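Field log, afternoon session.

UNIT: design team B
ACTIVITY: writing a sequence onto a fixed backbone
BACKBONE:
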């Protein structure tokens, strides 16, 4: 394992804040050229590592700083206070707190605790009234009241950023900049997690989160200065250390599937050896819950080298809506919650 992340840093400013719209309208040649350059960089990153750093994103540093402070305050609460918003209380919305060991990766408990959030929906929303899983209100701790406003502001900021990055992904594939935002992510599935990883002794066998790939289209990750994120590469596991002012961006299985394996979702894992708790903030921008998983051209199970995916899956095997696919995935992460909530109603 190397000490260098070997990941590119991509300035997405030409895509953010209307840059993608400039490309669509074609009114500013310089803007089009700048966005095209970003798209080329994204293509190279998605073909090479499946991971890159994003800068020029426009997300206020003070928002993330305040979110980190409020999150640390929550995780420092006594267990009884944290479990007031346990995920079982979130019902079918699948929101709230889980303790260390409460989430599984590849069937093994992770060494982390966390909070699950999503798009905030009122009780009278038709999807909530219909009992659609993963839709509803978030659970927020009464002991840290400022966390609510910070989380909702962060969801808005990262949704905007994610759509901008997807505009670059679309351009990198020779598509219109609005290909995703006008279709698959017009009404996106938004999932946001706040994780706290306790320090892990070097001799410990367990992982904060074990080897996995992400389910959807795009992940944007903010992390504190603890380090610990590792990415699979041909030369072995490499580090993706925190770079101030950036987000780590990676593609998920659905973009892998959509591109027929030309862009590959890359396995990654986390171990916290910093000696203190590690905070991370993964944000997932996925297709609409009711959207059909698009058909793929070419191979989905193998890459250009003819090698099968890291976990042996054929991503063409699933048909149906993205919501069906996602529920199958998250039910494996929380099997008890699946039994108690999804199957009991």
């Amino acid at each position: 394992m190397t000490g260098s992340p070997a990941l590119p840093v991509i300035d997405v400013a030409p895509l953010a804040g209307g840059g993608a719209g400039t490309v669509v309208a074609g009114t500013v040649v310089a803007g089009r050229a700048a966005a095209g350059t970003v798209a080329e960089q994204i293509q190279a990153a998605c073909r090479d590592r499946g991971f890159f750093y994003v800068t020029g994103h426009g997300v206020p540093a003070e928002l993330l700083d305040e979110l980190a402070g409020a999150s640390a305050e929550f995780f420092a609460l006594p267990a009884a206070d944290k479990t007031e918003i346990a995920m079982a209380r979130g019902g079918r919305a699948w929101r709230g707190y889980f303790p260390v060991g409460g989430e599984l990766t590849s069937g093994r408990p992770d060494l982390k605790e966390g909070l699950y959030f999503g798009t905030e929906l009122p009780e009278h929303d038709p999807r909530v009234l219909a009992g659609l899983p993963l839709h509803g209100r978030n659970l927020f701790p009464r002991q840290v009241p400022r966390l609510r406003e910070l989380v909702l502001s962060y969801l808005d900021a990262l949704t905007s950023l994610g759509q901008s990055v997807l505009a670059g992904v679309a351009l990198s594939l020779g598509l219109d900049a609005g290909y995703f935002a006008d279709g698959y992510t017009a009404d996106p599935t938004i999932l946001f997690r706040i994780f706290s990883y306790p320090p892990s002794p070097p001799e410990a066998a367990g992982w904060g989160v074990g080897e996995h790939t992400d389910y959807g289209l795009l992940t944007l990750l903010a992390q504190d200065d603890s380090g610990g994120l590792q990415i699979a590469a041909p030369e072995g596991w490499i580090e993706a250390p925190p770079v101030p002012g950036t987000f780590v961006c990676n593609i998920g299985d659905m973009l892998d599937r959509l591109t027929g394996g030309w862009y590959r979702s890359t396995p990654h894992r986390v171990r916290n050896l910093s000696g203190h708790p590690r905070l991370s903030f993964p944000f997932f921008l996925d297709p609409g819950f009711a959207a059909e998983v698009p058909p793929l051209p070419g191979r989905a199970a193998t890459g250009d080298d003819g090698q099968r995916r890291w976990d042996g899956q054929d991503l063409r095997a699933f048909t149906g809506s993205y919501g069906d696919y996602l529920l199958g995935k998250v039910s494996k992460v929380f099997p008890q919650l699946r039994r108690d909530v999804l199957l009991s109603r």
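LOG NOTE: The two ends are 47 Å apart (CA to CA).
NEXT ACTIVITY: expression trials, pending approval
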